[in-house]
Design brief:
With about 375 residues, this protein is α+β, with helices and mostly antiparallel strands. The chain is built from nine helices and 17 strands.
Amino acid sequence: MTQTAPHTSHQVSTDAFPMNGTDYVEMLVGNARQSAHFYQTAMGFQPLAYSGLSTGVKDRESYVLIQDKIRLVLTTPLKPGTDIGKLIDRHGDTVRTVALWVDDSRAAFATAIERGAESYFEPKEEKDDQGHVVRSAVKSYGDTVHLFVERSAYDGVFLPGFVAWEPEYRPGPVGLKYVDHMVANVDEGQMNKWVDWYANVLGFKQLISFDDKDISTKYTALMSKVMSNGNGRIKFPINEPAPGLKKSQIEEYLEFHGGPGIQHIAVATDDVVDTVTQLRNRGVEFLRVPDTYYDTLLDRVGEIDESIEPLRELGILVDRDDEGYLLQIFTRPIGSRPTVFYEIIQRKGATSFGKGNFKALFEAIEREQELRGTL
């Protein structure tokens, strides 16, 4: 696996400020109520909180769902002509906000601005009878926002302005644990700009670099660098397209998303076979690689704890690095546009991202593109 130092003139090797992990992810969607039903039914998320007309909010409605350490907020505009509506029109259902849990939101914001970030909104304290939170936010690539959440003085269900959401309909969880990483797609020539931004503004460091020799097929290619905060709980691979004979998955994403954004969210499980079995039984569709992938699997990755046949049946991929191995699988896009999808990943020591699977995976994506007529 290719490993390089960050492409940055002012490399920063420690966090600019303490970051404890991903607080929540907010998606802007066309119909939050229906999307919440999908995430409950298909992906096992549990109802947590609600904000909308009945809580005094007149311009938007939000449903908050949770599964172990993953908090997902689904937000829809309630009136025409809103900023949220314009973003959905441009991007389709899209990840708007990646909220980071910090000890001091004011200090995080001040440090980020001092280091060159552009403000989205300045620190504000939000209160109710359960305490208060402090939130602030800076702009990142495209319309993506990083929000700094300080919640040590808050005991409420989610945030001030939200109430407990307690529907009778409660399908069980499927074993998803936490956000492992979130992958961004940016325009050609912009990857290093955002690598620099994460290093210089947030103090992230580069873990791994992949070039078009690592991630390419006969027709398409891309390049990627992985940025991580100091404790390793927040990881952002950043992709850009590389020249190829046909339109790459990154170019397809950029076209249908209307610019840069979050391509996929990787969520961890402790038992990928059980989790993927449940997801498939609930109607979640996954990318498939040819069955021949499994004929030489053990020759490539060595001995693993799992039996080959369930992996073959479900289409789960395996890769090994110096630390151990991982199992991973990717859903098809979850919406009408070929943009946002999910990765289900189980790490058994491995700290990498499945380099050995890139060729098979990207050929599978190309087959999907060919069916869509976008290759």
